[in-house]
Fold this sequence. Notes:
By secondary structure, chain A is of the alpha/beta class. Chain A has helices spanning 23-38, 61-68, 85-98, 119-122, 137-151, 155-169, 183-187, 216-221, 253-264, 281-290, 299-306, 321-324, 331-342, and strands at 5-12, 47-51, 75-79, 104-112, 191-194, 196-197, 206-215, 228-237, 273-275, 355-361, 366-372.
Amino acid sequence: MRGKVVIAGVGNTRYGKHPGRDRIDLIVEAARNAIFDAGISKDMLDGLFVKMANSEPSILYGQKVSEALGLRPTIGCSLDQGGAANIGLITYAAMAIEAGMIDTALVCYGDTARTGSRAVYHRPRGDDAVVGWYSTAAGYAMIHQAYRNRYQPRDEEFGIVAVQTREHGSENPDAHLRMPLTMDAYLSGPFVVEPLRRDDCCLVSDGGAAVILMSVERAKQLGRHAAVPILGLGQGQESWDVHLREDLLRTKAEDSARAAFKMAGIAPSDIGVAQIYDCFTVTVLQTLEDYGLAPRGQAGSKALAEGLGIDGWLPLNTSGGLLSESGTPGMQLIIEGVRQMRGDARLQVKNPGACIISNQGGSMHTHATLVLGEPL
Amino acid sequence: MSFPTVNITDVNRPYWDGLAEGKLRYQCCEACGNTWLPSRANCPKCLAADPKWREASGRGRVISWVVYHTAYTDHLKARVPYDVTLVELDEGPRLLTNVIDSEAGKKLTPDAPVALSIESEEGVSIPRFRLQQNHGAL
Lengths: 376, 138
Ligand SMILES: [Zn+2]
């Protein structure tokens, strides 16, 4: 699979609030932008891969999106892997292209969790609600506390992730939250579910995002020289809920990254820019360590000492991530990874060489990893 | 939103009935010896059906915890700040619970020994715990 399929176009809406618009409208806008960016005709799309909307899962959702896009694709589906689904869908689209079953695929997501319903993020968690177990944040708070118990990090080691991604997002005109964050403001932020402070937690946003995949041969035929090759893909599913994991700080994220690096034929040290799923700051520290980008327990101290900016040790979430660009689940990270590799990102890293992108869902239940290489 | 209702099924009824009788039960697979909570119809390790119920000693230890400063529903407004603590029973199964005398989590430490102390709230018997100075004294 290495280098056989490319991301030939990307598109997104502005992120934040879109009152009065529905999620499929946002998908169509993002798709229109991606089709324009790829320089193709809509009629070329014969694969349509849609991530299920977090705020309202529904049956045959892919068909509703397909109808709005005026497509009758050969292969189409909507998938639920929580926040891992966008890379999951890219994986299945790339496989279908490589198998010769489809030619050109649109992978897309849109949701209106901000102006619509965010009840999913506040929900009671089964019968454990009787002890007060509610919300998505709580599972990550449990992991964050386990991280504190094991490594005794300073609070600033989490804070640097929020401060740096917010600084990146402040440069992004499409970002939901453009207000920068100081470390003092991070530290004095109120607790939501302790140890999570307000600014450890990602946004809840409206927005749409889409990418277009095709074979490298097709991109060459079309003269798409800015197309970015997919070097590696990996997945791993933890299954057990946070509190049932033998070790709260070990999930299949590690396996997902190992598979992606193996396919790409590169090592963590070859990565020049990273887009890491920052639903919560601890997720970033854990993922950097799971991916072999930092030693166990040291991602935060390394970030404080060596920086996560575009000139830092590891340029991270250079368009703002979930903490600043958009609280939508993961496609914005993929789009920014593509822009970094093309060299047309707003905060461009010099010669990144390779970009790694993590997607994950649930409370670090599902994992998917994407490695992008230099354009054709 | 009011107090959450427990969804009683044929599978979890012995658990909630046990708590109402002052007993904390967990499931055990006779085929492979696996033990677990929450209740399931089949053993997730060997897939054998008809797991058996056993009564736990009520002793366990703290693994991790969180402290809610946000009340996600109305009935929790009077409770914040409150802890939700992950406890591993001596017999192996784990559960999410509250440690009654933890002062909203302030007194919790990893591996702290705890002992069962069932409380009734809105007609539901809830398995909660208290901190133990020494593990032997229940
Ligand atoms: Zn068994």
